[in-house]
Design goal:
With about 300 residues, this protein is of the alpha+beta class. The chain folds into two domains: about 35-85, no CATH class; about 90-250, ph1033 like fold (Roll), CATH 3.10.590.10. Helices cover about 40% and strands about 15% of the residues. The chain has nine helices and eight strands. The chain has helices at about 35-40, 40-50, 60-65, 65-80, 90, 115-125, 130-145, 230-245, 255-295, and strands at about 105-110, 125, 150-155, 160-170, 190-200, 210, 220, 230. The strands form two sheets. It has a six-stranded mixed β-sheet, with helices on both faces. The relative contact order is 0.16.
């Protein structure tokens, strides 16, 4: 297929001279984890209220610079205490391009929930749809024969950004399942992943990267659906930009909240199981007593 008028031969449209200040900001929560993120999203307001025991009318508390600094400090301390392996993950993998070869394969992953991405990072696992798992497993076998890897660019639906990049470590085992996805029972199978980058990189950083979609249409990479394959040359450009991007936010800022939700869920499940077990024991005792009474009569 011939490239469109706004593409060059590598499938990348010519860059504008000014990319809107990419890489200018240092890591401080100004968007997703900062004031704008708090003010513009009702669910995120509730999230901070729960984490910090704030009353619903406490917006002024959050706008206070001292309180914002407390949130940042609390986040950093939480990750340092519970996820030390994630502290310098982006720095450790900054030279990832040196290990990339033409036998590597690349795919877009679209998650319905950021909470599922949290579970993927926490447990180093993932699962797509049945067809998606088959596509990824086949790609893994082909890449492995050529001593290449399969890399996954993660994004949540409607987020307008990539949340990070992970590498497939195994093919999908259809006999395994993971019980903590937000849509329980919908995602069969399970495969192992290793996270390479955890950082928010907005789609606008890739708006000049044009690829051919599964349906044959030529669109920007940001229009990709789940398990859309990315050609090698375009994927290298994406990895380079993600590696160099000076992120302002990451999903790690919400790990404490998602861990709290998981703890509450597991406690509730444990309580329900205990109640069911107690009810079963009571019913067994009642049946045993009734049988004994019949024998006595």
């Amino acid at each position: 297929m011939e490239p469109s008028s706004n593409q060059n031969q590598e499938g990348v449209a010519p860059k504008k001279q000014n990319r809107g200040g990419r890489g200018q900001k240092k890591y401080r929560g100004n968007n997703r984890g900062g004031k704008n993120f708090y003010n513009n999203n009702y669910q995120n307001k509730q999230r901070y209220h729960q984490m910090y025991n704030m009353p619903p009318y406490a917006q002024n508390y959050y706008n206070n610079p001292y309180f914002q600094q407390q949130i940042l400090y609390r986040t950093e301390m939480y990750i340092c205490s519970k996820y030390r392996n994630l502290i310098d993950i982006n720095q450790r993998n900054a030279k990832i391009l040196e290990s990339i070869n033409s036998n590597c394969k690349f795919f877009v992953i679209k998650s319905f929930s950021e909470e599922d991405v949290h579970k993927s990072i926490k447990y180093n696992v993932w699962s797509s749809s049945k067809d998606g798992n088959l596509t990824l497993s086949n790609a893994f076998r082909i890449a492995e024969e050529g001593k290449g890897n399969v890399y996954l660019f993660f994004s949540c639906n409607g987020s307008g950004r990539y949340a990070g990049v992970a590498k497939m470590k195994t093919i999908c085992d259809e006999n395994k399942s993971f019980g903590l996805w937000t849509q329980d029972g919908k995602w069969p199978g399970l495969f192992d992943v290793e996270w390479i980058f955890i950082k928010d990189v907005p789609f606008k950083e890739f708006k000049d990267i044009i690829i051919t979609m599964k349906d044959g249409e030529v669109k920007p990479i940001s229009n990709s659906r789940d398990t859309q394959e990315i050609p090698y040359e375009q994927a290298k450009i994406m990895l380079q930009r993600i590696a160099e991007y000076q992120n302002t936010n990451t999903i790690l800022e919400h790990f404490e909240f998602y861990d709290m939700r998981q703890d509450n869920y597991e406690r509730n499940v444990e309580m329900k199981n205990k109640q069911m077990k107690n009810e079963q024991n009571n019913n067994n005792n009642i049946n045993t007593n009734n049988e004994n009474k019949k024998k006595d009569n």
